[in-house]
Design goal:
- The protein has 10 helices and 12 strands.
- β6 and β7 form a beta hairpin.
- The protein is globular and about 55 Å long.
- The strands form 4 sheets. A 4-stranded antiparallel β-sheet has the order 4-8-6-7.
- The N terminus and C terminus are likely disordered.
- It is of the alpha+beta class and 292 residues long.
Length: 292
């Protein structure tokens, strides 16, 4: 079964058919797939396979999840999960990035991990704790797919590849949290900023970030003046440029020279734990690709 790159998918057999008379919309009858789901295909830049975990699933597991996934916009600053509250949905970001924060009694907070297209939000659901002490806020606006927690757990309890992928992703996420804590204690603010910039750019299709220095200071749990000094040093080196609300990475190699070992530790652990991830597409940026 081939999904054409310029088209998206409507998956419910009882959903009204697409209006073929609308300009730019095309429907193409495909053979019925398991579960009697027919695909109506129309233009869209979004695709669940832009999330690496979903892209790694075998066809049967992916097709069971697909009609349960809902594409949602994720707005900058949107609160997706509050500390101590059970999440009604799990999220699989595609172009958005979510920041996980620990919040102190006085309201101060710091980022302990980020979640982008490499992962998912709501590990507490299948780890057994149901809730978490972290708060999840959209750091970079974009899109993602959400699924009701109950439906995700039904698939998880089938003991297929999804279970193994999510457990290994959880271990990688724990590594990121532990390394972030160590980095914030032992490395300079310049090194921390380089780590944060590289991890953020890795999750986006562009080198330009819509991000204020004040927000970065909140992420790192430091004063804004410190971020201003560190960003100024990187600008003088030619590694980045910035104007209000925008930071552009000009030369990654210069960031790699300045960054501490924590960036590579996190990258290596994700690569090790998810080394057998096989995408049904050649690149996550392709809207829709062939899968069998």
């Amino acid at each position: 079964m081939i999904l054409h790159p310029s088209r998206s998918v409507t998956l419910h057999p009882d959903r009204p058919a697409c209006d073929d008379d609308r300009p730019g919309w095309q429907t193409h009858e495909l053979p019925t797939i398991p579960g009697q789901i027919k695909l109506a295909i129309m233009s869209s830049p979004h695709n669940p396979s832009q999330n690496h975990l979903l892209a790694a699933l075998p066809t049967a597991e992916f097709e069971r999840l697909l009609p349960k996934l809902e594409l949602v916009p994720m707005q900058l600053g949107e609160l997706l999960c509050q500390s101590g509250v059970r999440m009604p949905h799990a999220y699989f970001p595609t172009t958005a990035i979510v920041s996980l924060h620990c919040v102190m009694e006085n309201g101060a907070s710091a980022e302990v991990a980020g979640v982008g297209n490499e992962g998912m939000l709501a590990v507490s659901l299948f780890m057994g704790g149901q809730t978490t002490l972290t708060r999840a806020i959209v750091q970079t606006a974009g899109h993602g797919y959400k699924i009701p927690s109950r439906l995700l757990m039904e698939e998880f309890d089938r003991y297929g590849l999804l279970l193994r992928l999510l457990l290994r992703y959880s271990q990688a996420l724990i590594t990121q949290m532990a390394q972030t804590a160590a980095c914030n204690r032992h490395h300079s603010l310049l090194q921390q900023l380089c780590r944060w910039l590289l991890l953020t750019v890795d999750r986006t299709p562009t080198n330009e970030l819509i991000m204020t220095q004040e927000l970065i200071a909140s992420m790192l749990g430091v004063r804004r003046v410190g971020v201003t000094e560190a960003a100024g040093a990187l600008k003088d080196l030619g590694a980045i440029s910035y104007r209000r609300g925008h930071i552009t990475v000009l030369d990654r190699s210069l960031l790699n020279v300045q960054v501490c070992e924590c960036y590579q530790v996190v990258k290596r652990e994700f690569a090790r734990l998810l080394s057998d991830v096989r995408h049904r597409q050649s690149a996550a940026a392709v809207p829709l690709a062939a899968f069998r």
